[in-house]
Amino acid sequence: METPGLVVLTPAGELDMADRDGLERAVVGAVRSAGVQHVVLDLADVTFIDSEVLAAVIAGRNAAVAAGVRFCLANAHGMVRRVLEVTGLLEVLGS
Fold first, then answer.
1. Which of 8, 19, 51, 67 has most Cβ atoms within 10 angstroms of its Cβ?
2. DSSP secondary structure string, 20-60?
């Protein structure tokens, strides 16, 4: 079921510097899409993230703030959740 104005992005696997540009393009593109009010980055299937991916998440958040779009992270678990907790991003962007 689709919810108008909502985009859910669902990356999977280990995300590292090789994935940064693609992830950032996907998040920023979703944020800037007409009619979008809320973008969720669903991390349920993500098993690893590095600092480059964190930078892409922050860039997405900044684009969302500039566009007046709500942006949040969902379903982070394991090491991914721990990295987000340690960096403070889970507190800021958790759903």
1. 19
2. HHHHHHHHHHHHTSTT--EEEEE-TEEEEE-HHHHHHHHHH
